[in-house]
Design goal:
343 residues, 2 strands, mainly alpha, 75% helix
C-alpha cells in the first residue's frame, strides 16, 4: 500500500510539474514583446544592406580572379603558338611557295568584363541624440530668456547685458512670473520654479521632436538603401552570370588551342619532311598531291587557331557570339583531324 501511495504521489507531483511547465510556456508565449524602435530597424536594414553588397562584391571578385587566371593561361598558349608554332608553319609554307593569308578580325581583340565597380553608398545611421541635446539646451535657454524678457518689460526693469540686474530687480521679475502676472502678490521662488519647469518641458519636447524626426528620416534612408542594395545585388548577379559565361568560354578555348599546337607541331614535322625530300620548288603545284594536301591542312589548322586568338572574346562586356562560333568551328575541325588519325 505504501508503494502504491508513493507511486500516486509521484504521479501527482509529475502532473503538477508538467502543468506548471505548460503554464510557464503559456506565459512566455503570451509575453508582450516591446516594439522595435525605428532607429533599431534602420540600423538592422543598413547592416543587412552592407552584408548583401559585401557578399555580392565578394562573389564578383572571386569570379574575376578565376577569369584572370584563365586569361593568363590563354595569353601563354597564344604567345607560344604565335611566336613558335605558327611562325614556324609560316616559314615552312613560304619555303614551299605556299601563300598563307593571315585571318584578320573586324574588331580589335578584347576580354572586357564591363563595369562591375561598386556605385552604391551606404550611409551610417546616427540617433541624433547629441544634436537633439544641444537643441534642447538652446530651447531651454531661449525659454528662460523669453520669460525674463517679458517679465522685465511688465515690471519696468531694464536689463542691459552683460550687466546682471540687482537682487531687487530679479525678485520683481520672478515675483511677476511666480503669480504677479495673474494679479496676485507673486512669489520669487515660484517664479524660479516656473521658469525652470517650463524650460525643462520645452527642452524635453524639442529633444523628443528632433529625435522623432531623425528616426523617421533614418528609417526612410535605411529603406531606400535596402531597396537600392537589392537592385545593386541583382545587377551584380547578372554581371557574375555573364562573367561566368566568359570564363567558361575561355576554359574551353585554352585546351583546344593546346590541342591545335600539337596538331600544328605534327604538321610542321610533315612540312619539314616534304621540303627535305622534295626540295624547295618555285611553285607549290610542283609538289606531290599528298604533299600539297598537307600544306592545305596546315593552312586550315592555322586559320582556325588564329581566329580563336584574334576574334574578340567579349563585346561590350558580354560574350561575343563570333568567338563562340569560332570555338565551335575550331572544335569541329579538330575532331575531324582526330577522326582521321584513328580511322
Amino acid at each position: 500500500m505504501e508503494n502504491n501511495n508513493q507511486v500516486s504521489d509521484l504521479d501527482g507531483n509529475n502532473t503538477h510539474n508538467m502543468e506548471q511547465e505548460l503554464n510557464n510556456d503559456i506565459v512566455i508565449e503570451n509575453k508582450i514583446l516591446k516594439p522595435i524602435k525605428k532607429n533599431e530597424q534602420a540600423k538592422e536594414l543598413i547592416k543587412n544592406s552592407i552584408e548583401l553588397i559585401s557578399q555580392a562584391d565578394s562573389e564578383i571578385e572571386a569570379t574575376k580572379e578565376s577569369i584572370e587566371k584563365d586569361v593568363r593561361q590563354f595569353e601563354e598558349i597564344k604567345n607560344t603558338l604565335l611566336s613558335s608554332t605558327i611562325t614556324q608553319s609560316q616559314i615552312l609554307l613560304e619555303k614551299a611557295s605556299f601563300v598563307y593569308i593571315k585571318p584578320e578580325s573586324d574588331d580589335p581583340f578584347e576580354i572586357s568584363l564591363g563595369n562591375t565597380n561598386s556605385n552604391i553608398k551606404v550611409r551610417n545611421i546616427s540617433g541624433g541624440g547629441i544634436t537633439a541635446f544641444i537643441l534642447a539646451i538652446l530651447a531651454m535657454l531661449a525659454t528662460a530668456v523669453g520669460w525674463i524678457f517679458v517679465a522685465s518689460t511688465k515690471v519696468g526693469v531694464t536689463i542691459q547685458p552683460p550687466v546682471i540686474p540687482d537682487d531687487a530687480s530679479i525678485n520683481k521679475i520672478m515675483s511677476w512670473i511666480g503669480g504677479g502676472m495673474t494679479g496676485g502678490e507673486g512669489n520669487p521662488l515660484f517664479g524660479m520654479i516656473t521658469v525652470g519647469l517650463t524650460a525643462l518641458i520645452i527642452g524635453f519636447m524639442v529633444y523628443k521632436l528632433y529625435v522623432s524626426i531623425k528616426e523617421n528620416k533614418n528609417l526612410k534612408v535605411a529603406n531606400d538603401t535596402f531597396e537600392k542594395s537589392h537592385i545593386y545585388v541583382n545587377k551584380q548577379k547578372e554581371s557574375k552570370t555573364e562573367m561566368e559565361k566568359i570564363d567558361e568560354h575561355i576554359k574551353k578555348v585554352v585546351p583546344l588551342l593546346e590541342d591545335y599546337k600539337v596538331l600544328l607541331d605534327e604538321q610542321n614535322a610533315k612540312l619539314q619532311r616534304i621540303i627535305h625530300v622534295e626540295g624547295i620548288l618555285e611553285d607549290n603545284s610542283q609538289y606531290h598531291q599528298s604533299s600539297l594536301q598537307e600544306m592545305q591542312e596546315s593552312e586550315r589548322l592555322m586559320e582556325k587557331a588564329e581566329e580563336l586568338m584574334t576574334i574578340p572574346i567579349t563585346k561590350e562586356g558580354k560574350i561575343n557570339e563570333k568567338s563562340i562560333n569560332a570555338l565551335n568551328e575550331a572544335r569541329t575541325i579538330y575532331e575531324y583531324y582526330i577522326s582521321k588519325i584513328y580511322a
